[in-house]
Design a protein that fits this description.
117 residues; mainly beta; 10 strands; six-stranded mixed sheet; single chain; four-stranded antiparallel sheet; globular
């Protein structure tokens, strides 16, 4: 049971880019996928993107075409490349493993993204 650790957040202007990282040692060999969620202040949490054990990727409509999720199995790290950022992307971003294994289903602390107009 390893809690993923997200990093890479920061403050950028609208139109800018950030790359978030999420590391969870052992999650790929355990057969887990990884998903990103975000929660803006005062709002409900939102699923953003996910990548499965076979590298199938999925995106919410709000980030489709701007965000790209990828995985490095050598380092058990998942990346979220965020381009063309908008103020409405401002949120706390966190990652969570998913899958049928008991090793999956755990999340950790997030990383803050602030996009200014």
């Amino acid at each position: 049971q390893v809690q993923p650790a997200a990093s890479g957040g920061g403050s950028v202007q609208a139109g800018g880019s950030l790359r978030l990282s999420c590391t969870a040692p052992g999650f790929t060999s355990a057969g887990c996928g990884m998903e990103w969620h975000r929660q803006a202040a005062g709002k409900q949490g939102e699923w953003v993107s996910s990548i499965t054990i076979v590298d199938s990727t999925h995106y919410s409509d709000s980030v489709m075409g701007r965000f790209t999720i990828s995985k490095d199995e050598r380092t058990d790290t998942v990346y979220l490349q965020m381009n063309s950022l908008k103020p409405e992307d401002t949120a706390m971003y966190s990652c969570k493993t998913f899958g049928g294994s008991s090793f999956c289903g755990y999340g950790g602390q997030g990383t803050q993204v602030i996009v200014s107009s």
